[in-house]
Amino acid sequence: MNFQQQIAQSLLWRGLYFISILIMNIFLSRYLEAGNSGWIFYLCNNFSFLLILVGLTMESGVNYYASRNSIDHKKLSWFSIVWTLLVALIVFIGLWFYFGRYKDTSFLTRAEYLYFAVSYITGIQLTSFFTVLFYANKNFFLPNFIMVLLNIVVIILIPKQVGTENTNGTFIIHTYFAYFLITGIALAVAFIAKNKSWENISLPSYIKIRLLLKYAYVALAANIIFFLVYRVDYWFVKRLASPEALGNYIQVSKLGQMLLIVPSIIASVVFPHTAGGMNRTEMKDNIVRIGRITTLLYIILFTIMALVGNWLFPFVFGESYQLMYTPFLLLLPGVWALSNLFILSAYFGGVNKVKINVKGALLSLVFILVCDYFFIPSYGIIAAAIISSVGYIINFLYSFKHLQKEHKVSIEQYWQISKEDITWVRTLIHR
Question: Taking the model in full, what pTM does it have?
Answer without folding.
Answer: 0.76
